[in-house]
Amino acid sequence: MIGTDLNAARHWLEAGNVVGIPTETVYGLAGNALNEESVLTIFRVKNRPAFDPLIVHTDSLDKVRELVRYFPPVAEQLAHTCWPGPLTLLLPKRDHVPDLTTSGLDTVAIRIPNHPLTLALLQSLDFPLAAPSANPFGYISPTTAQHVADQLGDQVPYILDGGPCPVGVESTIIGFDTDGQAMVYRLGGMALEQLEAITGPLRVQMSTSNPHAQNAPQAPGMLTSHYAPRKPLTLLAYGETPSISGTLSAESVGALVFSGTLPGIPAANQLVLAPTGDVLDAARNLFAYLRQLDNLPVTQLYAQLVPDEGLGRAVNDRLRRAAA
Ligand code: TXA
Ligand code: MG
């Protein structure tokens, strides 16, 4: 059921169940992060492999401190500047954070999301919420309550509707090495340029955020099938036009484009991410438009990369994974 009743959401969560929740980035599939049964339910509903750890959400820095052993100084600075907001920090976990939540890692991924409904929900709970994106593992992330209902509705008793997600791509993930040096593990809703203004130049290392990745099929969030539509998707460089030939007709092609349209493809088959050329619009529209693209009566999809700046970096990262 979709609704805006915070009490209903709270009751399901207190009973150990899972609930769809809005955040500024994407919708999450939330459960009690400290309750192993709830965490197992999240993994089961999402069909997510146990080696892929969850992000823990809470609503205050004091509550974050109850979950982590210490804050490297730069993490403290990032937390003060960016929370609530689309930034996840990897911090050493305290013992009472279940190994199931972190897939056995000794760090916990944690953030304070910037969404009024979910902040109010978190304030009313006496436990934090583990919440991966509320999509079946490997498919496109949800940015509306209806997206969640379409894919997980029969397995989730309640979906809290907070409207369409204003940022539209998942949080940026930052971890710290033993010297406390910050490193980016996932490009996301907090622009690299904004983060570097706080930390100085950042290394971006998106394939090794999880040591399990050594033997697992690539790092979490980094699986090649991630964000994938069901139909074959080919990337185009910014400004490139597809060469349609052979058995393919223009009518059987759909395209996701940045701000203009592509010649040779029917206008009805083209979705324009950012008509005014703003990469923030591209991020906000990305996942909803990928879903629409996937549902067009066509057999081959194209997607045009966007300018590689600000949230455009996260958009391009998701497009590359969707096409992989
Ligand atoms: O914006 C977001 O972050 C959304 C909303 C719901 O908050 N959540 C989200 O969760 O994107 P999910 O599960 O789809 O992605 C979490 C990523 C995964 O790639 C996971 O492997 C990584 O975070 N992660 C979680 N804990 C980690 C840890 N301790 N070390 C390294 N990576 C971790
Ligand atoms: Mg996800």
Give a brief description.
By secondary structure, this protein is an alpha/beta fold. 29% of the residues lie in helices and 18% in strands. The chain is globular and about 60 Å long.
Description:
Keywords: ATP-binding, Cytoplasm, Nucleotide-binding, Nucleotidyltransferase, Transferase, tRNA processing. It catalyses: L-threonine + hydrogencarbonate + ATP = L-threonylcarbamoyladenylate + diphosphate + H2O. InterPro entries: DHBP_synth_RibB-like_a/b_dom (IPR017945), Sua5-like_dom (IPR006070), Sua5/YwlC_C (IPR038385), Sua5_C (IPR005145), T(6)A37_SUA5 (IPR010923), TC-AMP_synthase_SUA5 (IPR050156). This protein is α/β, with parallel strands linked by helices. The chain has helices at residues 6-14, 36-46, 61-65, 73-82, 99-102, 116-124, 145-152, 192-199, 279-295, 312-323; strands spanning 2-3, 19-21, 28-32, 55-57, 87-92, 107-111, 129-130, 158-160, 172-176, 182-186, 203-204, 233-236, 253-257, 270-272, 300-304. It binds threonylcarbamoyladenylate (TXA) and magnesium ion. Residues 23, 25-26, 28, 52-55, 86, 88, 90, 102, 105, 107-109, 113, 131-133, 170-171, 173, 185, 209-210, 220-221 line the site of threonylcarbamoyladenylate (TXA).
